[in-house]
Design a protein that fits this description.
The protein has one helix and 15 strands. The chain has one helix at residues 2-13; strands at residues 25-29, 32-38, 46-53, 60-65, 72-77, 83-93, 96-100, 104-108, 114-116, 123-127, 137-142, 148-154, 160-164, 171-179, 182-190.
């Protein structure tokens, strides 16, 4: 019958679902998350949507790639979240969702401050974590009793922020950086 021929033609023109399975792998690579997957079949209409979130239930779209004609796919997240990152990849063809990958977790521990040299003579450099760079922040400095001795707003945090405590007496200081609702603290020892 004509209906049978149409169903047969439709079935034969489709790629079997197992051809679209996506086995996602991921790893932390320095400050980035590196994702990779391979597929058996690829066509020019395929689009891979990459989603990321802080937990397995809340993910949002962070990128799209079209790797045709290769069947080996990679994606580098250059701005992962601090803490756990959950990733998933979806294969779309036009407006049709064909497949969804497994969920992959990659942990990025919270970025820490570094100050060099430490101990030092009061001239030091605060190394800003990559996730804070080019963001606005507030630097506060406390003496060993917890009394605030300096505070300054920095509209665009650089990679290296000079610190001058040469006029302060020898002792222990706490430097606190507030940025993006997060607080990082480091101890600095001034000796001459």
């Amino acid at each position: 019958s004509r209906t049978g021929a149409t169903l047969t033609q439709l079935y034969c023109s489709c790629t079997p679902l197992e051809e679209h399975s996506i086995r996602l792998r991921g790893r932390k690579q320095g400050a980035f998350s590196q994702l990779s997957w391979s597929v058996k079949y690829q066509n020019p209409a395929h689009r891979y949507h990459i989603a990321r979130g802080p937990d397995r239930y809340t993910t949002s779209h962070i990128g799209t790639i079209s790797p045709y004609p290769t069947t080996q796919c990679t994606y580098r997240d250059r701005s992962p979240l601090e803490g756990p990152n959950f990733y998933r990849v979806q294969l779309w063809e036009n407006d049709l969702l064909l497949a969804e990958s497994n969920l992959v977790r990659i942990d990025h521990p919270p970025a820490q401050l570094t100050i060099i040299p430490n101990p030092g003579n009061g001239q030091a450099t605060l190394l800003i974590p990559p996730s804070f760079r080019d963001q606005s922040g507030t630097l506060r400095i406390f003496d060993q009793r917890g009394k605030a001795i300096a505070s300054r707003d920095v509209p665009h945090l650089p990679a290296r922020l000079p610190i001058d405590l040469q006029e302060s007496p020898n002792g222990i200081f706490y430097l606190e950086l507030l940025c993006q609702g997060q607080r990082r603290t480091i101890l600095y020892v001034k000796v001459e």
